[in-house]
């Protein structure tokens, strides 16, 4: 993104502020089990890739059980979590455009669940909606036809009024969709294509995860692939990283830092819905909950022994805890035949829209005593259809964050959109691709274009700061 994106961060206000070191608040937050964790003391691990239980000519079949587990997150301690197949972070499904994926989920919890493929283009019965749940002890099969471009997608729980705590405690996993066009580009691949799933948590002195609704302040332990502030030893060559913000509330403004004032820009190559048309060099990566960013770092630019921190420049929380995410330790130069071509993908031309709509997001401000969140002044009602969309139509949606101090974002099921404007200005280069989630700081407006030409039915749209959607910032559209 451009420096305009950095300037927009200043609009966060309220709880989401630029970071400051030390002080009484930092001391109070630091009095937890996580405070004993030495940054960059544990190696990064990569979520396991799930093997198909069966393969046919046209489909891959997977079995996933949602269950409780105990795992080591903080060194030397055990933490109870919710998992897919016992893995925290959940296992990765690697899928292929045009090849069907069939996933049988068994719910071994004592509460309902619903599995949503975030970013997926699927019929209603396989979307994993908030009211379409799997009862305890029951099973459900989701079928994904994968009729969309390659992209970094992810699965997560969506059971209404429970999704916030379920995702916080671990119910999410990667779904990496590839396609032949991407294969031909020569991007870093194999062990040089690494997912980075970000989340934050609040741990008590017994290393238990503490969940409180809408608690942005105290979730100050930063986890990458389920590891606190890890390090990764890299070869001096190009790597592709797939960032996924699986936090409930935290927004990241990330930059590579060697501890000096020197900027180390990276090349962003993809966003929510797949590859950008062309790489976008950017000094920062801005990522709100639910968003994904693919970027490439060429570590051959750095001398062996260089240590680069993926630093975070946005609160809430003290710098010594939330101001750093992970570290890259650069090793020796190795052969590298990968590349980042100047042209990555061809984005379709935007059709002429025929309908315009406006959506306002707001919630009860901190300190008012209220705990509800709204779209166009209404909280979610599963029996209400808020927007009627004609199948095949192209629409422009103007979405405004009317909250005074709290950021929001906006996520649409089924459809990927294109950002036309931000506050009357063109979108940042890194936001010009296919998107399904857009960040809005207080007072910001984004104009989005959407085409509804795949499936019919009732789908939700909502804030993907998941605590806010659980508080009511969600609505439904009927496409018919």
Give short descriptive properties of this protein:
single chain; mainly beta; Immunoglobulin-like; seven-stranded mixed sheet; 6 helices; disordered N terminus; Bilirubin oxidase
Structural commentary:
- This protein is mainly β.
- It has a domain at 3-37 and 186-333: Immunoglobulin-like (Sandwich), CATH 2.60.40.420.
- The protein contains six helices and 31 strands.
- A seven-stranded mixed β-sheet has the order 12-11-10-14-19-16-17, with no helix packed on it.
- A hairpin with a 2-residue loop joins strand 11 (221-224) and strand 12 (227-228).
- The longest helix has 8 residues, at 23-30.
- It is globular, with a radius of gyration of 21 Å.
- It starts with a helix and ends with a strand.
- The model is unreliable at 1-15 and 20-31 (pLDDT under 50).
């Amino acid at each position: 993104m451009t420096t305009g994106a950095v300037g927009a961060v200043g609009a966060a206000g309220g709880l989401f502020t630029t970071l400051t070191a030390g002080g009484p608040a930092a001391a109070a937050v630091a009095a937890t089990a996580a405070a004993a964790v030495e940054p960059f003391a544990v190696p990064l691990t990569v979520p396991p890739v799930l093997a198909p239980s069966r393969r046919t000519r046209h489909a891959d079949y997977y079995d996933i059980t949602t269950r409780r587990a105990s795992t080591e997150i903080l060194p030397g301690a055990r933490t109870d979590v919710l998992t897919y197949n016992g893995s925290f972070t959940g296992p990765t499904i690697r899928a292929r455009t045009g090849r069907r994926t069939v996933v049988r989920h068994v719910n071994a919890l004592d509460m309902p669940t619903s599995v949503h493929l975030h970013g997926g283009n699927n019929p209603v019965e396989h979307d994993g909606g908030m009211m379409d749940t799997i009862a305890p002890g029951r099973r459900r099969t989701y079928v994904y036809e994968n009729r969309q471009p390659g992209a970094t997608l992810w699965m997560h729980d969506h059971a209404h009024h429970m999704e916030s705590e379920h995702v916080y405690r671990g119910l999410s996993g990667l779904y990496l969709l590839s396609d032949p066009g991407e294969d031909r580009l020569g991007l870093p691949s194999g062990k040089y294509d690494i997912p980075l799933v970000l989340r934050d948590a609040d741990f008590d002195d017994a290393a238990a995860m503490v969940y409180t609704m809408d608690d942005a302040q105290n979730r100050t332990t930063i986890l990458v692939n389920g590891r606190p502030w890890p390090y990764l030893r890299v070869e001096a060559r190009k790597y592709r990283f797939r960032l996924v913000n699986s936090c409930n509330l935290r927004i990241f403004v990330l930059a590579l830092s060697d501890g000096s004032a020197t900027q180390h820009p990276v090349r962003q190559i993809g966003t929510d819905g797949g590859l950008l048309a062309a790489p976008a060099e950017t000094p920062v990566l801005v990522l709100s909950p639910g968003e994904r960013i693919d970027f490439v770092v060429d570590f051959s630019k750095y001398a062996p022994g260089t240590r680069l921190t993926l630093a975070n420049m946005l609160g809430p929380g003290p710098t010594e805890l939330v101001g750093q995410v992970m570290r890259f330790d650069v090793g020796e130069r190795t052969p590298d035949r990968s590349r980042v071509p100047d042209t990555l993908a061809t984005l379709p031309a935007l059709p002429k829209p025929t309908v315009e709509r406006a959506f306002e997001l707001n919630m009860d401000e901190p300190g008012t005593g209220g705990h509800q969140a709204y779209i166009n002044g209404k909280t979610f009602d599963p029996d209400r259809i808020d927007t009627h969309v004609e199948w095949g139509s192209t629409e422009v949606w103007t979405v405004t964050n009317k909250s005074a101090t709290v950021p929001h974002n906006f996520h649409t099921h089924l459809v990927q959109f294109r950002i036309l404007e931000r506050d009357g200005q063109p979108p940042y280069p890194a936001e010009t691709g296919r998107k399904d989630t857009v960040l809005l700081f207080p007072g910001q407006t984004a104009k989005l274009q959407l085409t509804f030409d795949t499936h019919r039915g009732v789908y939700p749209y909502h804030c993907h700061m998941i605590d806010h959607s659980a508080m009511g910032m969600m609505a439904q559209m009927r496409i018919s």
